[in-house]
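Quick one, T. Sequence first:
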Amino acid sequence: MDYVENRMAQEAAKPTPSPEVQTIATPINFILLSLFLLVLYYQIRPKPKVVLPAAPPPVVFKTFTPPTLLPFNGQNNMPVYLAVRGRVFDVTSGRNFYGPGGPYANFAGRDASRGLACGSFDEEMLTEDLQAPLDKLEGLGPDEMEALKGWEERFEEKYLVVGKLVAVGDEGKEEIKA
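Structure tokens:
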């Protein structure tokens, strides 16, 4: 028992640290140091380069004739344009409706005014002869003109006007307003 008593006496003889003496290695200090290092890492780490998406090519306002408008029917990766009362709208964002296979596909690349006014999406609503004068919408009643105006307003809100539609031979003529 001498050994045990001797050992206890040695332990009792060791000075106990006073309350003012504390160690820096505490769990809270370890957590704070870790947070500091994490914030520091996020501040000095290399930033990834920002890559902006490619902008679509600029659209230039053009004068179209029925034959020059026809290729813009959405086939062969072409944009989808259609005309309403002499204004050409880029309806490419509505390709599901106006592009190939869509319910309004027959209007793509064409003057859709009469068909929209009559609420008919049949081929006979389109002018067959592309060299003929533009449809003056004669014979349409007030209800049909009101329907056409509603369609036109919808297109104005949703799509960009990219040009005007004129008859073949009128491309170079400027409108003279009195």
